[in-house]
Amino acid sequence: MKEIEIDLKKFLEDRKKKKETLQKKLSESLESFLKTKIKESSEAAKSFFEKIRDLQIENLLREAKNFEKKNKWRKAALTYEKYIELKLKRIRGSKEFLTSLLKIIPIYIKAAECYENIPHKSIEEMKVDLKKSAELRETAAELYFKLERFDDATKQLKAAADKYEKAKMYEKAAECYSKIGDIRQEAQDLLSAAYAYDSAANYFLKANKIEKACSILLTSARMKEKFNLIDDASKTYKKIADIYRSYGYHEKALEYYGKSFELLHGTDKFRNIVSVYGSVGKNLEDAGKYEEAANCYMNAFNICKDLDSEKAGSYLEGVARCYKKNKNYEKALHYYKECAEIYSKNEDYFSAGMCFLKMAEIYLELKDYEKAADHYLKYSEYATLDKKRKLDVFDGYYKAIELYKEIVKKLDKTNVEKIANIYRKMAKSFEGLGNYEKSGDFYFLSGELESKRDVEKAKLSYRDAIKVYEKGKKYWKIGKCYVRLNDYRKAFEYYLKHAKKNEDELNFFEAAQGYRKCAICLRKLNDKEADAYYNKAIRFYMLYYDRIKNVSIPPGEKANPGAILRHVGECYRDMNLPLDSEKYLQRALEYFQKENLEEEYMLTEAVLNGVHAEMLISKGKYEEARHLLEEAIHLLESLINLEYWNEDGKKSIRKYINEYKSKLSKLEVKPKPKILLSLNTPIVGICGIEFPINFEVKNESLDPVYKVSFLDHLPEGFEIKSKLKNIEKIDGMTTINGQIAVISRKVGNFEIRPLEMMYRDKEGTRYIKSSNEVKIVVLEKPQLTEDNIEKLKENFTKYIEYQIMNKNNFYVAEGYRYLAEIYRKLGKRESQNLYKRAIDYYTKFITTLEKEIKDKDMESKIKLLRAYKGLAICFERVKRLEAGKEIVKRAEKYIKEMNLYKTNSKSVQNEIYLLEVTKLKFEIKSKLESSEYKALKTLFEKTRAILERLSKEDLRDNDLSFVKDSLEEMENLSKSTKY
């Protein structure tokens, strides 16, 4: 039992041990299993979080791109930078570091571009962003360099340098190019490295880092020497020298100029050798060694003059400049002059001008003021020719003017030639300044002085004045110049421009002055239009008078109401209307007396005395006229030296003195020339139809009379159709016959003196003679009806009888033709007899006038043309085709001989067209008679075209009747003809 118990106990113990062992193994196995599972779970979690982080980083990149698309540049840039920061942390230490780094570099560039695109409100904000952009590009360049992508690195550094430059961070830009140089050396591209160092030096210079610039340029120069780039290396050494020179390190500069020259010695690089010589000269000049500098510049000039004349000029200018600084003025002037010539040949007018400026300064130093002024003038003249620079170089003109003014003050007033010459130079100076009025004034003054000693020079000055006045549109003064040149037609044109311009601007006084000058010029030209312009002047004087008569006038104002009234009186005086002149001069006197303007009163009184003297002379009362003229001269001579008057006022007074003295010298007791102006009376005309007035001028004295002119005094409603012609001379005991053509728009009897004649004796004394009183009977022209036929016949018969009595053959013919046209319209057979009578009188008129037509005036030539036309129409009306054709031939020959085709007169052209129609009608009727139908269509069309044109013109009644009848006739013939 015990054994059994022992075995059981042992069994249980073993079993317990086995159970414990099994539990331990299970526990260990479970623990191991659990540890494994936990480890696997941890790695999975880590991998999960890393994926989340990668997604977040990539999200930043997407966000940045979205911001960029929306032009939100700053947000885009900042987001790109955040992406770079996180990405770098993520890839640092990874196996794919280099590959990932290569992908990040473009993001640096993207961020930089975003900073560059940001719009800025201030320069400072822009600089901050440009700096940020440059830094990002620099970082990109460093990364490319580590990856040995040298070209990409170079590109980013250049872009960075550009941004630094825009931000005015020149030293940083220089460092970028310095790094480019280092990179190109690493890439074995030594030449590009040298040029990169050159760029770095330029930026160091901008940053005022002189030593750094020179040091890096020295590196560049040595590298170029290694490559045997002698020309480039020499230029780089010269650049180092130029830098040292500009900062006053003259000895160091000479050292590097020496190196530059040493490399060029023995080569054919003459331009570069010249450049070094010039720079050495400038270095010596800056150091105050003027003689040595001048020699260097001269060496440069001698080598360069055949290579580059423009550059040669600058070296010669250096020679002149050194002599000027050394106070060797003679040599300085010599070389500046040579230099200016070289610049001028090369059309470098600004540089030429600057040479003249330096010469002016030297002459000023030498106290030769005229030459100084001349050269100041040349300086501005030449410098302003330079269209490229467009600089303000007018100071030379101002300085010249001031000096010329002082010179004139010191000159003896009798030295007219010298003063006139100075005035011309002052005129040039003012012209250069664009002050054309002042310029013209001095040319004019020069002309005034020269006119006393050299007429041709004076004319030249007046013409120069005109040119500059033209630029300034000073029409009044241009007119004045043309008066001095005795070109009154041109003077008239410019006074007229002055008048019209002021009329448009409602400046009535100046307009009046202009029109008055126009009248004076036309009077000088013996042009009848003068009076029309005097009347215009009067109208504008009175408009101005109405404007100012109730206005307070400042003391000393010349354009006062009294002066205006005097101007009007003077206009009437010049028009030979003494009574009107007297009226306005008297009113002017009353104004001046009231306003206590003594000087103006005395002048007006003198003018009025002159008018009264003229009236007395025309009546033969010479002693009384003499007394008035002497009194007027005395008044004027007491006025002329008063300070009250300006130059124009004094000139006007002198003119009156000379005029009155001339008249006084001619006055003597003598008979007035006996001239008669007689008109036939009565005169008969028909309302609306042209009729003649015959007159006779008879000189019953032994002496001839001169300058005979006529004025009409016809009533309102009368119109003169032919001009009253002046007669230059009528010998003693001679009679001259004349005729004027008129039209009356009024019916009735008029008793008038229709004409007035003005003439002069051999001394020039003017006289007026009125015609005898005549009766003008203007008959009615009734409407063309059957009831009025007798009245028409009666009136035209009276008209024709009067013309026959006075041997006015042309007007007799015209009267018969008028009457014939009336009878023809009414279908009366008497028309044929009337046309035949018209033919007789046209023929008489033509036969008489044809013989002497070459010596006749244009109006007589036109009247003969009208007669040819009237005769041709009458032949056509009575169907005498051959006779009509012959007259047309004679007329065409006459038109050609008298050159009437070229006459611009509308009425002459219409007469020629009417003749052409008559000719065509003869041709049409001849072809119809001979049954030649083929050419008729063209002839009908041509005739109709001319007739239709004539139907729109302002023709005489009988011509218009012919045109209308012919149109109707051509229409009927055209329809009835079979072509």
Q: Topology of this structure?
A:
Elements: H1 2-69, H2 73-91, H3 97-117, H4 123-146, H5 150-166, H6 170-186, H7 190-206, H8 210-226, H9 230-246, H10 250-264, H11 270-286, H12 290-304, H13 309-325, H14 329-345, H15 349-365, H16 369-383, H17 395-410, H18 416-432, H19 436-450, H20 455-472, H21 475-484, H22 488-504, H23 508-524, H24 530-548, H25 561-574, H26 578-595, H27 598-618, H28 622-639, H29 647-666, E1 675-679, E2 683-686, E3 691-699, E4 705-712, E5 718-720, E6 727-730, E7 734-744, E8 748-752, E9 755-760, E10 766-770, E11 774-779, H30 789-805, H31 809-825, H32 830-850, H33 858-877, H34 881-897, H35 906-929, H36 936-951, H37 957-976
Parallel strand pairs: 2-11
Antiparallel strand pairs: 1-3, 3-7, 4-6, 4-9, 5-7, 8-11, 9-10
Helix pairs in contact: 1-2, 2-3, 3-4, 4-5, 5-6, 6-7, 7-8, 8-9, 9-10, 9-11, 10-11, 11-12, 12-13, 13-14, 14-15, 15-16, 16-17, 16-18, 17-18, 18-19, 19-20, 20-21, 21-22, 22-23, 23-24, 24-25, 25-26, 25-27, 26-27, 27-28, 28-29, 30-31, 31-32, 31-33, 32-33, 33-34, 33-35, 34-35, 35-36, 36-37
Q: What labels would you give this structure?
A:
11 strands, 4-stranded antiparallel β-sheet, alpha+beta, 979 residues, elongated, 7% strand, 37 helices, 72% helix
Write up what this structure looks like.
A 4-stranded antiparallel β-sheet has the order 1-3-7-5, with no helix packed on it. Strands 6-4-9-10 form a 4-stranded antiparallel β-sheet. The protein has a 3-stranded mixed β-sheet with strand order 2-11-8. It contains 37 helices and 11 strands. The longest helix has 68 residues, at 2-69. A hairpin with a 5-residue loop joins strand 9 and strand 10. The N and C termini lie far apart (178 Å). The model has no long low-confidence stretch (mean pLDDT 86). Among the domains are: 478-549, Serine Threonine Protein Phosphatase 5, Tetratricopeptide repeat, CATH 1.25.40; 572-666, Up-down Bundle (Methane Monooxygenase Hydroxylase, Chain G, domain 1); 693-777, Sandwich (Immunoglobulin-like). It is α+β, with helices and mostly antiparallel strands and 979 residues long. The protein is elongated and about 195 Å long. Helix content is 72%, strand content 7%.
